[in-house]
Amino acid sequence: MNLNGNGKCKICRSPFRDQIDKMIVEGQPYSQIIAAFPQLNLNKANISNHKKHLNPAVLQEAREKYHAHLEELAEDVVDEIEALDAVITKAFRIFQTFDGETKPRVVEVWTNTLLRAIKLKKEIFSGDEPVKRFLDDLFLNSNLDEEVESYE
Ligand SMILES: [Zn+2]
User: Fold this and answer.
1) Nearest 5 degrees, angle CA 113-CA 115-CA 116?
2) CA pair distance 72, 88, nearest whole angstrom
3) What is the 84 CA–ligand 1 centroid distance (Å)?
4) Which three-class secondary structure state does DSSP give residue 29?
5) What is the Å distance from ligand 1's center to 33 Cα?
6) d(CA 65, ligand 1 centre) in Å
7) What is the pLDDT confidence band of residue 68, given thresholds at 50, 70 and 90?
8) 127 CA to centre of ligand 1 in angstroms
9) From ligand 1's centre to the CA of 48, what distance in Å?
10) Which of 38-47, 59-68, 97-106 has the lowest mean pLDDT?
11) Pick from 40, 26, 18, 115: nearest CA to 5
């Protein structure tokens, strides 16, 4: 154990090294780590210094978790953008099909939908996440689709 440890480091010599390594890579504040191991009587310098001795296996695990998380996020965003693109395409098709004077309600609803879809697409790229709520709303309101289909 403690292959790359440092004999002078309180944390490396302690039996809590792996636990502390995990807390460090999870980004927990120093104050919380200090409070979790009162028996070690740590200070911030001890932890800061120990960062050079982190167990490579713990670091590797954290790196893999982080990449898996990024990939999940990327997949979600791709799904959301495809759904929004479908909405935007449909809205444009409706504008080409319907005349605002004869079907003002349909055009108004889809104008609002289009503007919201475009706004949400921008928000996805800036990292916000109200998109799922919007899509849920849309599916709950699928009677609007029926209203539109009946005119097609
Ligand atoms: Zn150490």
Assistant:
1) 65
2) 24
3) 49
4) coil
5) 14
6) 23
7) confident
8) 36
9) 9
10) 97-106
11) 18
Retrieve residue 42's tokens: 């740590």
Question: What number of CA atoms fall less than 13 Å from residue 114's CA on the CB side?
Answer: 14
Model confidence at 20, pLDDT cuts 50, 70, 90, reads: very high
Structure tokens at 66: 């982080």
The mean of the pLDDT values for the chain is: 77
CA of 70 to the centre of ligand 1 (A): 29
> Going by C-beta distance under 8 Å and a sequence separation of 6 or more, which residues neighbour residue 132?
80
Give the ranges where 7-129 is alpha helix by DSSP (H): 10-13, 17-25, 30-36, 44-50, 56-97, 104-125
Q: How far is the CA of 67 from the centre of ligand 1 (A)?
A: 26
CA–centroid distance for 84 within its chain: 18
Can you give the length of the chain in residues?
152
Question: What is the percent of the chain with per-residue pLDDT over 70, rounded to a whole number?
Answer: 78
